[in-house]
Amino acid sequence: MVAAMTDTASDTPASRPLIRFAKGRARRFRSGHPWAFSNEIEMTPEAKALPPGGLVTLVDAGDEKLGVATFNPHSLIAARVLSRQWGDAVDVAFLAERLARAVRLRDQLFGAPYYRLIHSEADLLPGLVVDRYGDVLSVQLNTAGMERLTPLLVGALREVLAPRAIVLRNDSPVRGLEGLPLEHKLAFGELDGPVESWWRTAPASWPT
User: Domain 92-201 sits in which CATH superfamily?
Assistant: First the structure.
């Protein structure tokens, strides 16, 4: 079971565990790839003992700090980068900034708040998918890292969007690769019936 960070838990960059690339294996990551595979990392006993989904600082073989990532020692995709700035603290404010950036982009493209708000690495939040249905949010947490960040994510979503409800739709088979159960549950608010989609509410002048 993946333990969640609490609302009061703080990410302190200076005290994060260090995960080291094997010699010569950081080249792909340095070129912009958002992941580090388990065969690129020095999987020491200390690394293998880290809890799935925890935050780590990635370093190269020469101990240069390359970024902050979520880490799962039991997955082929061992590390998923959240920021190339290792000193960034991953907290509600960090997540809210990523969410707000995604909202600004979608607001330029869509005439109503019915869209995929977060699409994992494309929005710099690997393992997270958020679909927006007006004032209701459907959230998929597809990695141990995002599962662990659930309380902070819910707080950030409430801060940025003030939704009526947040539903966790954790039914993707990919969760099994991360050692996570399949489940549906209400993370915030109340639902008293079906949620209308964009197609039901779109004005007649919009393309359908």
Answer: RNA methyltransferase domain (HRMD) like (3.30.750.80)
Q: Hey, how many other C-beta atoms are within 10 angstroms of the C-beta on 48?
A: 10
In three-state secondary structure terms, 150 is helix
Q: Where are the domains of the chain?
A: 13-83, 92-201
Q: Which tens digit of pLDDT belongs to each residue from 72-129?
A: 999 999 999 999 999 999 999 999 999 999 999 999 999 999 999 999 999 999 999 9
Q: Which residues contact 131 (CB under 8 A, 6 or more apart)?
A: 115, 116, 117, 137, 138, 139
pLDDT for residue 8 is more than 50: no
The architecture in CATH of the region 13-83 reads Roll (2.30)
Q: What angle do CA 201, 205, 208 make, to 5 degrees?
A: 65
Residue 167 pLDDT > 80:
yes
Q: Do domains 13-83 and 92-201 have the same CATH topology?
A: no
CB burial of 73-96 (b: ≥16 within 10 Å; e: otherwise) equals: bebebbbbbbbbebeeebbbebbb
Write out pLDDT tens, residues 184-197: 999 999 988 777 76
Calpha distance 126→81 (Å, rounded): 7
Collapse the DSSP code of 26 into the 3-class scheme (helix H, G, I; strand E, B; otherwise coil) and give the result: coil
